[in-house]
Amino acid sequence: MNRINRPKSEGERVLIGIPISAGIAIGPVFGAAEPPAVITRHAIAAEDVTAETARLDAAVAQSRNQLTKLRARLAVLPEDSQAEIAPLLDAYLQMIGPSRLLRGVRARVARLRSAETAVEEETDALAAAFLAMPVDPEDRSGQERRAEEVREIGRRLVRNLTRSPFRSFSALPDGAVLVCEGLRPADAALLDPSRVAGVATDEGGADGHTAILLRALGLPAVLGVAGLSQAALPGHAVIIDGSAGTVTTDPTPASLAAARKKVTAFARELQRLAKFRRLASVTTDGEAVELQANLEIPAELPLIAQSGCTGIGLLRTEFLFMNRETLPSEADQTETYRAVIEAMGGDPVTIRVLDWGAEKEIEALVTAGIVPEVGDQNPALGLRGIRLLLRETALFEVQLAAILRAAVAGPVRILLPMVTSLSEVKQAREIYERVARRLRRRGEKLPDTLPPMGIMIETPGAALSADALALEADFFAIGTNDLSMYTLAVDRGESDVAHLYDPLHPAVLRLVQFATEAALRLRMPVSVCGEMAGNPKLTSLLLGMGLRSFSMNASAVPRVKQAVRSLSEADCTRFARRVMEQTDPARIREMILGDGARAEKPVKAPRSPSP
Ligand code: PEP
Ligand code: MG
After folding, report:
1. DSSP string, 146-177
2. What's the pLDDT tens digit per position in 16-37?
3. Domain 46-162 is in which class?
4. Residue 284 Cα, ligand 1 centroid: separation in angstroms?
5. Could you report the per-residue pLDDT of 415-470, keeping only the tens digit for each?
6. Atom 6 of ligand 1, residue of closest alpha carbon
7. Architecture of domain 19-34+167-259
8. Which residues are catalytic?
């Protein structure tokens, strides 16, 4: 592929990002920021010109934001890398300002061409004009570069106009490494782990939903890599180290050989961990600890079956609603839930009702007119989770009915996302009981006792009113991902503030402890199902707080079980007490993580508190 607008490879370069999903990937770069699905060029009616211009303006603004952000993030790169990449982004930014290109596109829309058509036609015309300019043959490459820059900006505008940010993954060659600026959770869910070697992106945070999906798929991944999509040339070799959080572009033969050795070591380590699948999850002094798996897409079921877990502690149902045009019917949903419950062979399954909002976009809800096409200014604080379900009760009722009908197949619990107040739980329960009565009248077979209805503790409001919520909820599942985000006011999926996202911040830990104690006082089941639960370096702290149930990415279960089996309750309690006395986040990280890195390798969690 001829990418003359990109800097030429200057040899090996190691870029640093956020380690997301362990493993090493070696392969050719597949640049996903390629032209979107082919558009059909078409005309518009005169009365649509204003709306079409507004659509174009929105796509221009979005493109400008994307480029400004990429440009700003270059500051973390070494100076020579900045000097190489920055001029290109500056050229793009200029073109997306008051430029000849945009004037031309606007004029075409005024002449009744659709915005996408106008962009394609104008960029084609401009590129052709650059190439046709009579110049000294020595400067031919300069003309080609300018023509390609215009085309690249055109592609970005069309991608944003058509809301199709990525090239279809069906074009992805087997064994390639996917490299793009950012990946939406809905796009990540479409990746086939048997074909993709690994993923790296410029954007993204440690516990965003894209990160969670990549972990679920077991794909080596590094997110938040500044300068990546400019430095990684399509077709060139790249190494992703998902544990170290590095991306090596154009690696030397020595780096390739070292990476291959790491691939072998990683496979051996997985083999060693496999033996934990069959062992009991108990501490050295005989405390049983429940280890369950999170499920975000059905493709994970075989992994879950082999993980050695005892049930699903968090079934995120968003996958049922994503990447489709219409909403799933009650029958569709019943069938999916029943299949999962049956696959778990009698182990419990906790099904969380739809958690729409924040970064989880669901086109089918837009198409059905349930949520607006243009999202809230602040979607994480908007109509998310239970808030949408209590407003759109029909959507909620269909899902509850499907879960209740499937619940005859095995033990089930229902989980409510984004709860902040007691009244939400009461309203949800009323709807739940009404749905159950209606189904019984309809003659549906339901379990004799209705499945328990619990709540996510994932907002500071819920954590701090846990004692009150415990009177109405049947169980708590502590969602440390959102709890960290809302407590620290740091977007969990945002690379710019990724360094501030810290589940070990004392404020977050105190909320986890407060909610846990509220549940334990009432002998109510409480678990942790955020990403913290799957980090074996945190097991001693969480056990020491009194927690005995964790739900995590299936691949984390053996490592966490290994940690559980190496710890005693008494040591954990002492260790947690010492951690909770600390007020300095850095000191807490030091006590827990030792090296200050995110835990990826098996660890020897502290058997006794360090002095
Ligand atoms: C959480 O917020 O910790 C959680 C488990 O929910 P999700 O990651 O789906 O938002
Ligand atoms: Mg959450």
Report:
1. HHHHHHHHHHHHHHHHHT--S--GGGPPTTEE
2. 999 999 999 999 999 866 555 5
3. mainly alpha
4. 30
5. 999 999 999 999 999 999 999 999 999 999 999 999 999 999 999 999 999 999 99
6. 479
7. 3-Layer(bba) Sandwich (3.50)
8. 209, 529
